[in-house]
Amino acid sequence: MGRVIEPLALYIHWPFCASKCPYCDFNSHVREAGVDHTRFAAALRAELAHEAARLALGASGNGARRPLASIFFGGGTPSLMLPETVAALIADATALFEPTPDIEITLEANPTSVELGKLRAFREAGVNRVSLGVQALSEDALRFLGRRHDSLEAIAALELARKTFPRVSFDMIYARPGQSEAAWRAELRQALALAADHLSLYQLTIEPGTRFATEYARGAFALPEGDEAARLYFATAEEAAGFGLGPYEVSNYAQPGAESRHNLAYWRYGDYLGIGPGAHQRLLLDGEMFATRRHRGPEEWAARVERAGHGGTEEQALTPQDRGREALLMGLRLDEGVDPERIAARSSLPFAETVDAAMLAACIDEGYLEWRGSRLRTTIEGRLRLDAMLPVLLR
Q: Does 42 have pLDDT greater than 50?
């Protein structure tokens, strides 16, 4: 029997936003003079075709179409794309690859009135899951976060999304200045009552190079930290559980079966394509795992695609040690944990050679990690310390 070919996940990056949020360090860009939609649509389609051809020629593809389990339009603000561009990219992807019967197609959207008017067109284009950047339902918090929508628009977006798409996710930001646990719980309950499939939770952190970094450095505001932030995190799990959502990943909650299949491909260290400015990808080709990075600047990326068919700036074959580390870094974020056999298969390295045995024992003794059957997973306490724990755990 031949090796089973795992399905792909496809990420498509639209790098443009109407404005730059003060906390955001993503590869997003504002173009006051407007965006050449025709040019960027053509470049995205060309880069997708280039990667599909390379996969078909590789031994891992054997000339056949690879299964495709998910497409994710991220950004930036993909809901600023033209619906016909989204439709064309979905058509290309499902022609170049073999879509699974339950393919998940997600598009990120902001709850502004302009973008809400396009939701039905995105559904007609083939999108079957929408991820809304709600972030807050407090007017003061939305102004502080630099969002272009108010709470009424956010509520309207959640209601319209529920009527339009079979699956709905939304993002919320916690640990904001002056945020109380009672107010946070009330905010969560209001949002979950409107769209209780999937919640992505983000702690407000200060990222270098952002406007918030400058303001925070001069003492313009303070953030909840330590035990105060932890209480807000634990409150999230309690409120989500009241609506049937479990914490399947450090920052994500879902009803059973509503987990993000696309993001699970990352966390389970599967193969994924990344198309568009600044996109990353990991592909197993001819027994080697290749990491690819694309040019971050939108116009330069498009020019590279027009010249060479792709906008890649760097590609390297990862060592078995690199692969083992990445697989653990991603997998320990999941509630299900990691399967040592899976780590070994994806890294070509015995599991014992990817972790420091003494640190693993210490983390288990401290109650931060545990074995559940054959899988290694983080505990609730371990999730709060994961960023600090991983550098000392990995070899």
A: yes
325: which DSSP letter?
H
Q: Kindly give the interhelix angle for 151-164 and 181-194, rounded to the nearest 10 degrees.
A: 30
Alpha-carbon dihedral of residues 46, 300, 77, 108, nearest 10 degrees? 40
Confidence band (pLDDT; 50, 70, 90) for 113?
confident
Cα(50)–Cα(127) distance, rounded to whole angstroms? Answer: 23
Strand duo 198-203 + 252-254: pairing: antiparallel
Whether the predicted model's global pTM rises above the 0.85 cut: yes
pLDDT at 128 over 90: yes
Which run of H or of E encompasses 204?
A: none
Q: What angle do CA 180, 229, 215 make, to 5 degrees?
A: 85
Find tokens 């959502």 and name the residue: 245
Q: What is the percent of the chain with per-residue pLDDT over 70, rounded to a whole number?
A: 97
Pick the CATH number of 320-395 from 2.60.40.650, 1.10.10.920, 1.20.81.30, 3.40.190.290: 1.10.10.920
